[in-house]
Amino acid sequence: MGTLQIRNLTFRYTNMEKPLFDNVTLKIDESWRLGLIGRNGRGKTTLLRLLQNQLTYSGTIETNLDFSYFPQPIQDPAQMTLNVAADLGQVADYETWKIERELARLHVDSGVLYRPFNTLSPGEQTKVLLAGMFADDTHFQLIDEPTNHLDQMGRTTVADYLRQKTGFILVSHDRHFLNQIIDHVISIDRANIAVYSGNYETWYTAKTRQDTLEQRENDQLKSEIKRLEKTAQQKEQWSNKAERGKYAGGKRKDSSDIDRGFVGHRAAKVMKRSVTLEKRTNNALNDKKKLLNNLEDMAALTLPYQEARTDQTLVTVADLVLQHNQEALNQPLSFTVKTGDRIALIGPNGAGKSTLIHALLDGQQSPLIRSGSAHIHNGVRVSYLPQDFANLSGTIKNFASEHEVAFDMLLATLRKLGFERQLFNDRIENMSMGQKRKLALARSLCESAQLYIWDEPLNYLDVITREQVQQVISEVRPTLLLVDHDRDFVNAVTTMKIRLEHIR
Question: Is residue 455 within 8 Å of 387, Cβ to Cβ?
Fold first, then answer.
């Protein structure tokens, strides 16, 4: 049986003040289906790179396992798909059946193997890469964000597939996807890394319970420290007053001499108690420091939603057929968005969900409209969060100015989303995809609007951030038109789902 033993692993990038990992120790069994969970920037991908010995670290990583990593960069995307998959799985010509077997389990026709890889859809490419990896059953698989290009049906297919496998670490921010697959969790917390038995829901319940207990104990310690500090202050004031009186040379009201020895003795006893109180206070402070190290800051987000008139129609879509390269995308579609509606556009990749949003923003003369109509009514104030944010650049301050949002409000929102303060001075183009997505999301969360249009807002966001966004939408209940593939999020926040279907 293969095992992976990590002892005292410490690693930091050269520009970091503190280590990303500090004396991490854990043990993993090769049969486990592990979900790797943690905030954006905590080092999930870095940990996978360390396992592959791609970075220099201190400590030890002992294993007899060989690793394969998803997604592998494809040097020549124009080559035949069969060659791509065979290279990944180290499959000989006479073993092509292994790749075909894995593709069948992923509901992909084996004919794709004889097409150039770059002609496949992103979803097909994901499934081919997974099939190639698992055609070799001697490797322990490291799977990093496989759902980014999968619609809900594709995610269900891949989840069913991975559930039949053993021996991998899976990085994903899709809670429903994780919950279906994994039997253990590696949680990269604020202060350490821990392994839990169970799926995502089991981990989240345990984590929430632990955070609640630590918060309660922290509150009790804060009260105790406050009480001890007040008592110590009172004792110190009496002691100082007594000492001053001892040497003041004054008389009692009965004109008898002051018993300087008595007062000095009592003051000494008070001072001794003060030292004891100080020690107890310091002990309580030390206990408090040990708490909350791993408490995830689930700060409540805000949204300056401006509710339009009750039952006001904000969006009208009538008999709409969209087009791409002069080809019709969908069956005719009609719906309206009224005040208070929270509508999710669902359907397979390529059915026109994002295209519909672009058509609405373009207006009735949009070249994306083949027939029918789609428009946002005049005077409706809209906050739009686009799917594409990879090309953001410049400073956060310039970003705030460009989008006319209050800089301080944007920074406060970013902090609530787990953004580290040292990133505030970084250039946006140097940030990770998760950090860029949080910046784009924070901008929309700072905008006052009657209608929020969000195109895949949760892409690249960690599970904690997803919980925060879900909470603010559930509480504020803004009018929302949404495209997203996170099933739990869509089910929790929307009042209606509208399905787009391909032209048959």
Answer: yes
Nearest to 125 by CA among 136, 134, 137, 116: 116
**Domain finish residue from 178, 206, 234:** 206
Per residue in 110-164, pLDDT (tens digit) is 999 999 999 998 889 999 999 999 998 889 999 999 998 888 899 999 999 999 9
Q: Is residue 458 part of a domain?
A: yes
Range of the domain at 231: 207-290
What CATH code is carried by the domain that includes residue 326?
A: 3.40.50.300
Residue 265 belongs to a domain: yes
pLDDT above 90: percentage of residues in the chain: 62
Are 283 and 376 within one domain? no
> For 196-244, how does the pLDDT look when each residue is reduced to its tens digit (9 = 90+)?
999 999 999 998 888 888 788 878 877 777 776 677 666 666 666 665 6
Rounded Cα–Cα distance for residues 139 and 10 (Å): 25
- Who contacts 147 (Cβ-Cβ below 8 Å, separation ≥6)? 154, 155, 158, 172, 174, 177, 485
Q: How many CB atoms lie within 10 A of CB 227?
A: 13
Strand extents, DSSP E, 297-376: 313-324, 327-328, 333-338, 342-346, 369-376
Tell me if 303 is assigned to some domain: no
Q: Based on the domain organization, do 175 and 236 belong to the same domain?
A: no
Above pLDDT 70, what percent of the chain? Answer: 86
Cα dihedral sign, 137-185-36-13: negative
- Domain co-membership, 45 together with 193: yes
Rounded distance, CA 243 to CA 286, Å? 32
63 and 176 within one domain: yes
Q: Measured over all CA atoms, what is the biggest interatomic distance in the chain, rounded to whole angstroms?
A: 114
CB contact set of 248 (below 8 Å; sequence gap of 6+): none
